[in-house]
Design goal:
7-stranded mixed β-sheet, Spore Coat Polysaccharide Biosynthesis Protein SpsA, Chain A, alpha/beta
Length: 228
């Protein structure tokens, strides 16, 4: 049984340096894939779960993203003067998101299969989990090498190679306050959850493409027209 929908945080502040010429004068989430900005492919998944609020953090070339997202009802927060990374960015946005669990999403990927956000909501168990990550079997993860985690029979994660982190999760935000740095990765929070045995994951049944470099755009466009 799915719980009520949760607020969504889109991480849109990065520099996109691996995209080379494509991000010289364009923020990475606005790179076109199959005639639409990358972030619109993410928003299509987000809109289908009807979250109470959608927030995007911005830093590099924020003006095009502001012009694109604000009319869509997405709340934005510009990180200045420095980018805050995923952990710092999420903590900085809690005034807009609230203090409960949040769905976070990296908008630089294309999914072919069931909506990963809906799957996470269906599997979310806040009594057992501090975070629930979507994992992609490496054979279904295009334009991405290696893995990030192993998943045991109970869904608990350890560092390993069984699945690639697909950039979407549900995460409780209280542990963010234990980090003293202003700019930090969510990996620091995951490490605390790993120690407690409360970091969980599920496997995605479809395919996924990391759009992290120019060649990934072509692969992602092919994935969008492929059968699951």
């Amino acid at each position: 049984m799915r719980c009520m929908s949760l607020p969504v945080m889109l991480f849109a502040a990065g520099f996109g340096t691996r995209m080379k010429h494509l991000t010289a004068d364009c923020p990475k989430p606005m790179v076109m894939v199959a005639g639409r900005p990358l972030i619109d492919h993410a928003l299509a998944l987000v809109d289908s779960i009807a979250p109470p609020v959608i927030v995007a953090n911005l830093h590099y070339l924020p003006e095009p993203l502001l012009a694109h997202l604000v009319p869509k009802g997405v709340k934005t927060i510009i990180e200045q003067p420095d980018v805050l990374e995923t952990g710092g960015g999420l903590r900085n946005a809690l005034t807009l998101l609230g203090n409960g669990p949040v769905i976070t999403m990296n908008p630089d990927a294309i999914w072919n299969g069931p909506n990963p956000l809906g799957l996470l909501l269906d599997a979310w168990d806040p009594m057992r989990m501090d975070a629930l990550l979507m994992g992609i079997p490496p054979e279904n993860a295009l334009e991405h090498g290696g893995g990030d985690f192993d998943i045991d029979a109970d869904g608990r994660l350890t560092r390993g190679t069984d699945v690639v982190y697909g950039g979407v999760q549900i995460i409780k935000t209280d542990l963010l306050e234990d980090i003293h740095e202003s700019s930090f990765s969510l990996n620091l929070v995951w490490d605390k959850m790993l120690e407690k045995g409360t970091l969980h994951g599920i496997r995605y049944s479809g395919r996924w493409c990391d759009v992290g470099h120019p060649g990934g755009v072509t692969t992602a466009e092919g994935l969008l027209t492929a059968d699951v």
